[in-house]
Amino acid sequence: MKIVFVVNNKNNRFKKVLPKLEQYARQANIGSVQFHHTQRKQHAIDLTHQAVTEGCDVIIAVGGDGTLHEVINGLLQSSLPASAYPAVGLLPQGSANDFARTAGLSSSIEALFQLIRSNSTRPIDLGKIYLHDTQESRYFINIASLGLGPEVVQGLERSSSWFGPGFQYFQQIIKTFFRYTKKTIRCSSNNWTWEGKLLQMAVANGRFFGNAICIAPEAQLSDGQLQLALFGDLSIWDYLRNIGKLKKGIKIAHPQVHYHTAKEVRVESSDACGIEADGEYVGLVPATFSILPNAIRFVMPSNTD
């Protein structure tokens, strides 16, 4: 068995975790193990592409949702047929770890190696974003969002904070609210359409985003469906009144909040409306979002979801 770890090396953030991980990998005696460290943004895409082209059985992202996002895109941008993809895994070490919440993953190195050793994998879906203007495709494993979310992501990339990720996310959401201008969008699927001013729209494969906000409580990783949560012309006070419910995974009963399912949805806007996926900014609408059922095998407990 050949296992490749793709490690987010931003600011050498894992200097305490990596020695333990490397030592455990040497002692585990479960095959060949390689470590590749990122040196720049989107480097994990290139590292993954190289690793899967050279051949491996398992590829593990060490980092957060953004690192996993890049690993997924490196895999699907390779020339391998889907039947030849290695299993994908995650050692969650990021600031939010939202996908890990849905997948039932812990930050335990021992637990990860136990899953690998026992070949505990499940087929899961992926989301695909087709950007019409640039004719590019991007893939996501957790949640993509439009409107407020992409501007929060861009703000986080520019900011720094002494406080933890929870406070940083909340602070950036509030800051963005006060400067955000709602976008007028139109989205359509095969059996429904929606048009109006948009605060935020989540296109979900997983349940959580924004550091443990359960925006799509009914999302499942293997059901062949996207869950959509549309927050229309809401005020900041509406949002703040409902943040506790969102954290608990309670759907919001409000005339400007709508929930849908779809296998494919197209979004258009006359405004410059951004898109983020798994916490990474990817571009602008118009775009088509679709589901890729059972696209990859993921290293995870068999009793989740």
Automatic annotation (TrEMBL):
One of its GO terms (biological process) is phospholipid biosynthetic process. It holds the Pfam family YegS_C. GO terms for molecular function: ATP binding; kinase activity. SUPFAM superfamilies: NAD kinase/diacylglycerol kinase-like (SSF111331). InterPro entries: ATP-NAD_kinase_N (IPR017438), Diacylglycerol/lipid_kinase (IPR005218), Diacylglycerol_kinase_cat_dom (IPR001206), Lipid_Phosphate_FormReg (IPR050187), NAD/diacylglycerol_kinase_sf (IPR016064), YegS/DAGK_C (IPR045540). Keywords: ATP-binding, Kinase, Nucleotide-binding, Transferase. This is Diacylglycerol kinase family lipid kinase. It comes from Aggregatimonas sangjinii.
